[in-house]
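User: I'm putting together notes for a lab meeting next week and I want to include a structural view of one of the chains we've been expressing. I don't have a solved structure, so I'd like a prediction I can at least talk through. The sequence is below, exactly as it appears in our construct file.
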Amino acid sequence: MLLHIHLNSDVPLHEQIHDQILLALADGQLQPHEQLPTVRQLAAQLQVNPMTVSKSYAHLKKEGYLVSDRRNGTHVAATLPKNDHFLAQLTAALEPLVAQAKLQSLTVAEFEKIVQSLFEKRSSSSY
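Assistant: Thanks for the context. Below is the predicted structure for the 127-residue chain, given as structure tokens.
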């Protein structure tokens, strides 16, 4: 699993790791039941503190994307979780982006085209 984090970003490292793993799931780079590196292995690979990776893994486990046990380590869940609050979260996340798009004079059609392009880019997922 190849993750790209930016040490100089305003986004905290644990959020970058979390988001990169979600992108790998959406792109089909990570498959159901696939083993993930241990916390220490990924921390060494990314040259970050193991607690940073642990925090990312814990968040993904809480969301239902990852499962772990002492014998088999951490791996991708067999099925994706269904989040009843997702639409509310999505709306809240999109509101400032829509406001910025309007300030940049983007039309609804242009915004929809961007979203459609992003969906198509991620269409190879096995989920």
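A couple of points you could mention at the meeting. The mean pLDDT is 91. The domain at 13-76 is CATH 1.10.10.10 (Arc Repressor Mutant, subunit A).

User: Perfect, that's what I needed.
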